[in-house]
Design a protein that fits this description.
The chain has 15 helices and 20 strands. By secondary structure, it is α/β, with parallel strands linked by helices. The chain folds into 2 domains: 324 residues, Metal-dependent hydrolases (TIM Barrel, Alpha-Beta Barrel), CATH 3.20.20; 41 residues, no CATH class. A hairpin with a 2-residue loop joins β1 and β2. α4 packs across α7 and α7 packs parallel to α8.
Length: 460
């Protein structure tokens, strides 16, 4: 997909590592040609950002499925794919196929399986998979219980200069648990595991990474004890990093109270004290990445008793908006938000993306950080709508997205129902008739409400 002509985006607020500044950005031949106080040149397509944020496209680190409509909705232009596929990404041919699969409108960066079949025993052909396009190596959804195998993996990855992406739960303690041990799991009668299973796994893997001199990234960290271990290791100079998901800083295990399987996650939701510890760690820099953990699951996986349902959430569409809640709450600023969402994931993958920097890939998102919308599982772009945020009002939407300087999406006209916040996308009020009669006829008859809605004079 070749950029047909230069694009100059004016009237925006540029999100850079130094903060947010008014300025102009010019995109030429798929790369960022200039940033700052510049002017459009003859022949450029000029796009007025109308005061919106002009930010790097998001780099989603550690997804379990490639879901282009959902990624584009959420402003994601690159995604690191976990090796837990069918079949697993444990052969160079499979890695090579995946590395080409998303182009030209999404770059997929495969994470190679650490062991054959992701069984945690025999190392896979990491060197050949790196040559085939792997940008890192991952243990998958499970922890490697064999410490000898994990040490060999870390040493081999260090020789290849590949980051190792680890799942941080002691599998022997977790077993088939569906929840975190505590009052909520006891009340619900759910099989549970202690939160300390995460800290035990983290402590061992930090020690092994220190021995091997390897780069280690914990994909999701969700407990105070594990965060304390990582914080201490960073002070010692260990080359480790860690991530989390919006679910683990927005929700606690109270979200499981009604056995709603959309809240069945791995790692499971934790106590509110651990949730607050995750927020604090994002604020103080201990957590390096916020990722969606995108793992769409259909009814066959979710319409089951809570303990039998498969863990996972469709997170790509809500990643940006939920992270922006931390900005509105004063936990982080916008520059830090996009460091978590784009710059650090790109650095871990070794790609020149994630920042508005001259010469780097022209992956650009135009964002209205205040645009209100309501998360609706029934209307999601993902292949399944298993979001724990279903029905939650939020703010922040991508209004236009560019991959390599080519527009993938432009702002669509939409209207918001003043009674319930439902968003009508596409052509203005399309669908309002049926929606109003089904939901709000008791508030005001549709025939009386429509003239007020269409004229913008509806009270409320």
């Amino acid at each position: 997909m070749k950029q047909p002509r230069p694009v100059t985006i004016t009237g925006g607020r540029l999100v850079t590592p130094d903060g947010v500044h008014e300025g102009v950005i010019r995109l030429v031949d798929g790369a960022i040609a200039a940033v700052g106080d510049i002017a459009a040149e003859d022949g450029d397509e000029v796009v007025d950002a109308k005061g919106r944020l002009v930010a790097p496209g998001l780099v989603d680190f550690g997804v379990f499925a490639i879901d282009k409509p959902a990624f584009h909705f959420g402003g994601i232009t690159r995604a690191a794919l976990m090796p837990d596929q069918a079949p697993p990404l444990d052969l160079p041919s499979r890695v090579s196929y995946i590395a080409k699969s998303g182009k030209p409108d999404l770059w997929v960066h495969p994470l190679a399986a650490a062991t054959r079949g992701l069984e945690g025993r025999e190392l896979a052909e990491l060197g050949l998979m790196k040559e085939a396009g792997a940008r890192g190596v991952a243990t998958g959804r499970r922890w490697i219980a064999d410490s000898g195998a994990m040490l060999r993996l870390l040493r081999y990855a260090a020789m290849l200069d590949l980051v190792v992406v680890a799942h941080a739960e002691d599998g022997w303690l977790v077993g088939e648990a569906a929840a975190t041990a505590g009052e909520m799991a006891t009340r619900l009668g759910l099989p549970s595991a202690p939160a300390e299973a995460e800290a035990l796994a983290v402590a061992r893997d930090i020690a092994l990474a220190e021995m091997a001199g390897a780069k280690l990234h914990f994909r999701q960290i969700t407990t105070r004890a594990a965060l304390d271990l990582i914080r201490s290791a960073k002070v010692r100079g260990v080359a480790i990093s860690c991530g989390t998901t919006p679910a683990h800083f927005m929700l606690s295990d109270l979200a499981t109270a009604e056995f709603r399987t959309f809240a069945r996650l791995s790692p499971p939701l934790r106590s509110d004290a651990d949730r607050q510890a995750v927020i604090d760690a994002i604020g103080d820099g201990t957590i390096d990445v916020v990722a969606s953990g995108h793992d769409p699951r259909g009814p066959e996986d979710k319409r089951l008793p809570f303990a039998d349902a498969e863990p996972g959430m469709a997170g790509a569409e809500t990643l940006l908006a939920m992270t922006l809640t931390l900005v509105r709450d004063g936990v982080i600023d916008l520059a830090r938000a996009f460091e978590l969402l784009a710059a650090t994931p790109a650095r871990l993958l070794g790609v020149e993306a994630g920042q508005l920097r001259k010469g780097w890939e022209a992956d650009i998102a135009l964002i209205d950080p205040d645009k209100p919308w309501v998360v609706s599982s029934a209307r999601m772009e993902a292949t399944a709508g298993n979001t724990p945020f279903d029905g939650q009002p939020t703010q922040g939407r991508v209004t236009a997205l560019y991959k390599g300087g080519v527009a993938l999406s432009q702002e669509r006209e939409s209207k918001i129902c003043p009674e319930c916040g439902h968003e009508f996308q596409g052509n203005g009020w399309d669908g309002i008739d049926a929606h109003w009669r089904a939901k709000h006829e008791n508030v005001m008859p549709y025939e009386k409400a429509w003239p007020l809605l269409s004229s913008g004079n509806y009270p409320g």
